[in-house]
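Review form for a predicted model. The reviewer records the input and the model, then writes brief findings.
Reviewer: anonymous (R2)
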Amino acid sequence: DRVVEASLGYFINPLVSVLLGFFCLGERLGRWQRGAVAIAALGVVLFILKVGQVPWIALIVAFTFAFYGLLRKLANVAPMVGLAIETLLLTPVAIGFLLYLHGKGIGHFGQGVEQTLLFVGAGGVTSLPLLWFNNAAKRLTLATLGFFQYLAPSAQFLLGVFLFREPFTRDYQVMFGFIWLALVLYSVSSWRGKAPA
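Model under review:
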């Protein structure tokens, strides 16, 4: 029941990445790109105001992944090496969490061969996008990387509306309008060379 709030975090995340790029890395934004950031921010803020509460999960998702992108941008290691280090550091935490869940009787890992293989396979499936993200983080400005991150939550919402038949309320329509307009402005400004991309 927190899918919408988590998705909102993925919409807020690129804005946080753009701001981190500006404040931490000295990345400059052209006039059109600043306008795009403002339009996207307005869409997200209007959505938050309409919902009427502080979306803690959304903010945690947005800020943790934006800071992850900043750290990957600053890290002076190859993407594959960086991902291997991250995996080695987090493996004990993950194993501890699995043991905790198992001890509480709510764990699912190891409950059946098929389910265990699905969990193990999910690790491989999620590592590919992280590897691609790490490669992109080295090649693109954090601002551009941030704006490309609107594609996944947009696809999630489109799948939700057209495949899963979830309601596409007026609030979502307004937010999507602002975000897509911002993406168009940002893309056009980057393609035309009006600002660094």
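Findings: The chain has one domain: 3-191.
Further findings: Helices lie at 3-25, 31-51, 56-74, 79-104, 113-139, 142-148, 151-162, 170-191.
Recommendation: see findings above.
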